[in-house]
## 1
Amino acid sequence: MSASHVIIGDGIAGSSAAETIREQDPDADITVVTEEGEALYNRILIKEFAKGKLPEAPISIHEEDWYAERDIDLELNTVVTGVDTDEKVVTTHESGEIEYDKLLLATGGTPTQLPVDNSDAEGIHHFWTFQDARAIREHADESDTGIVVGAGLLGIDLAAICGAQDIEAHYLMRGNRWWRYALSLEGAEIIHDALEANGVTPVFDSGVDHFTTDDDGVVTGAVDPNGEEYEGEFVGVAIGLNFNTEFLRDTDIELDDGIVVDEYMQTNVEDVYAAGDITRFYDTILDDYTQNGAWGSAKEQGAVAGENMVADDEAEEFRWVSSYSITHFDFPFLSFGHPTLGDDHAERKYSDTEWRRLAFKDGKLVGGVLIGDLAPQSKYKQLIREEREVADQKEVLLEQDVDLENLDAPAAAESE
Ligand SMILES: Cc1cc2nc3c(=O)[nH]c(=O)nc-3n(C[C@H](O)[C@H](O)[C@H](O)COP(=O)(O)OP(=O)(O)OC[C@H]3O[C@@H](n4cnc5c(N)ncnc54)[C@H](O)[C@@H]3O)c2cc1C
């Protein structure tokens, strides 16, 4: 008899798992539960919508019909409040109970609020859902001044939205540069110049001490820890995610800033799997547990989980080199692998808008950042997948046209 599969979360991880399960088992019962009021949409594209550059329609990925056609039960506007892994039952906020044979947790995260005064004032935006994007677009369109907080990949989306919506904005960063965990100052300066060209002023060694509000509790600006005041009708905050695991509090599922899974996306509890941003997964390339917050990785994890939920044994393992691109500027930007890890680095600037940085761990390439020229990405990803020790050949790796043939032969081949 086919199993009954319950998937919590209809983001790309949950949806991709549902699709895979249906492909593998035409008779399985599949239920997808999501607290959002709309079916899967392209979270990557909601920033283009918020900029005012895209209408709503192309952002949707699945209409509700998509689920009906595949005999997948989609429960919108339904919050899961608890899971009983002994009874194999999921509880929803309306006290509805859904029984499962196999359960997938694909609940992602919720943006973290700044722990400062007035951080919940009206006019302060966090950015994760299409609903957030609608509110941001409308408010940005009517604002003249703005503040952005969070010097990472989502913060820069908010800065780019300010630029596109003609908001005169200050981008308050805690350190001396944007994404200091992955870029050196030389690389980050290319981004700073591009922000300035878009009407966004980066402010370094700053941050937020507190937000100011008017008598109605609407945000008017921010004061940084140095006592500097910045005006902001529109404020965007992107300082990280809190993983959505609260509904698992009565279970024995292992949590470690996310849900711990092996390379098969299985948790420590039988018949319970997890996929997407929410996981701390065993990375077979790094030989260590790690996390990824990227669309492609979440999609693949969902597919791997789906395969393994149907196969009943460890059929497929997750082995993936992630990438994340930014398309806000005149030049392309891409980070790949784990650019913030590493015990050794190499970098080079090729022109005013071309720069590269590679991160190595234990002699192996584990990630990097490419600005301006993305051509070498597939070669670098290949080296990561092959787990080759190449840290001693930085000159070859930093050649503008990387040629892997110029690398010394891999150690294993030499000993043959
Ligand atoms: C603005 C923005 C831009 C981005 N740009 C890029 C990019 O350029 N490239 C890239 O690779 N990645 C990008 N990302 C990240 C990427 O979108 C995520 O990594 C990916 O969407 C994660 O998918 P997921 O399915 O794991 O989680 P999510 O998409 O977060 O889906 C989780 C779902 O679970 C639901 N849920 C949570 N708790 C419950 C509950 N208790 N009950 C019911 N439902 C629940 C949530 O409402 C949500 O719908 C971006 C993200 C954002 C927000």
## 2
Amino acid sequence: MGLPNLRNAAGALVLSCTLLPAYAATWTVRSQPARLVNGGPVLFQVRPPAKLESLTGTWLGHQLTFSYNAATKTWFALAGVSLETTPAKYTLELTGARPGNGARPNFSRQFAVARAKYPKIKVELTVEKKFTEPTPEQLQQIEEGKKIKQDYLSRVSADRQWSGAFTAPADAPISDVFGSQRIFNGVASRPHEGLDFRVPAGTPVTAMNDGTVLLARPMYFEGNFVVLDHGQGLLTLYLHLSEFKVKEGDMVRRGDVIGMSGGTGRATGPHLHVAVRWQGTYLDPARLMQLSLP
Ligand SMILES: [Zn+2]
């Protein structure tokens, strides 16, 4: 009577033994921060079970290219979650390339996205009429600005230029956070897609990380506008400057002065508006600065 049971037990044991090697070689995939929110950046860190030549991924419809950190033997990529993303679980799909044999191991892991609590304070702002009721000539300038942004801000340079933490572009208090909603002359506008620093005109504005100057020119709404390309679709934008200290094509290092603060364009007074754009999505600059990056 007991023999078939023993055989079953032995059979189960053999089965689990044959499966063990596959399970032993697992992928480790982590996010920083551990809790993902809409509007937030995220650093994905991956330790594959075997040596890889390259690693790519897809996340919320975006393509990710991972870099290798030899010190920690992990692959990393900076990504984000748009403000509009609904709280739910989303899948990070990974595909590696093994050196030599052409094997392409893959792995996927789900990450929950929670809803961030952004301030619901509505601000009544008085803005010059030219920004709410523009003339035909001003409309043309606005259209030109839109085209320039559509063209330049969608350019993706393949190589990562940033390294290490993103630092504050000015040593000043925050006057408006990311995600708050504004009202211009009684008309509700989009949520605030950047971070405002309370600085008087003429304060040095510094690069948040290493990159190349993609744009440095006057624009209708943005005023004197500098955009830095940090590679792989990650941009930082600096608005309302009084002066440029860089020109398009310049390479900058984190902390380099790129311009002086001001109140040009659609601004109620001198301040620095900084934005972080990742593959067409605006992310919270404050949350980006909190990440400890390789
Ligand atoms: Zn702003």
